[in-house]
Amino acid sequence: MASHASALKAHRQNVVRRERNRQMRSRLRTALRNIRAAIDAGDPGGVKDALRDTISLVDKMAGKGIIHRNAAARYKGRLAKRMTRRSAA
Fold first, then answer.
1. Alpha carbons 18 and 66: distance in angstroms, whole number
2. Which of 15, 35, 30, 22 is nearest to 64 (CA)?
3. Rounded distance, CA 64 to CA 44, Å?
4. Chain-centre distance of CA 27, in angstroms?
5. If pLDDT is split at 50, 70 and 90, which confidence band does 45 have?
6. CA-atom Rg of the chain in angstroms
7. Can you give the pTM of this predicted structure?
8. Which residues contact 36 (CB under 8 A, 6 or more apart)?
9. Given 3.40.720.10, 1.20.58.110, 3.30.9.10, 3.30.565.10, which CATH number is that of 27-88?
10. How far apart are the C-alpha atoms of 29 and 6, rounded to whole Å?
11. For residue 31, which of 65, 55, 67, 60 has the smallest C-alpha distance?
């Protein structure tokens, strides 16, 4: 365990940041799960708004460094692909 005051403070900061990042990642995963379920259910009205909100959340997470920007692009691309495939069918 750290013994210097600055190291103790850094440890406290890391604990807070880790917990915040875990909450944000959990929020992101829940949003992704919900939008996938909505797309599969085929509710076109609610899906558009939910997709916009989810993509916004993905962009925020990438901007904060919680997920990698390539992972964010992959999530958005797969959601858009799933949406167009469902709307075409």
1. 10
2. 22
3. 30
4. 6
5. confident
6. 18
7. 0.83
8. 79, 82
9. 1.20.58.110
10. 34
11. 55
Looking at residue 23, its pLDDT comes to: 97
* pLDDT mean across residues, the chain: 92
Residue 75 CB neighbours (<10 A): 22
- Sequence letter at residue 84: T
Look-up of token digits 């692909």 = 81
Per DSSP, the three-state class of 39 is helix
| CA torsion through residues 79, 81, 84, 87, sign | negative
Q: Are 35 and 79 in contact (CB under 8 A)?
A: yes
Tokens 């379920």 sit at which residue? 37
Helix, strand, coil share (%) of the chain residues, nearest 5 = 90, 0, 10
Domain ranges of the chain: 27-88
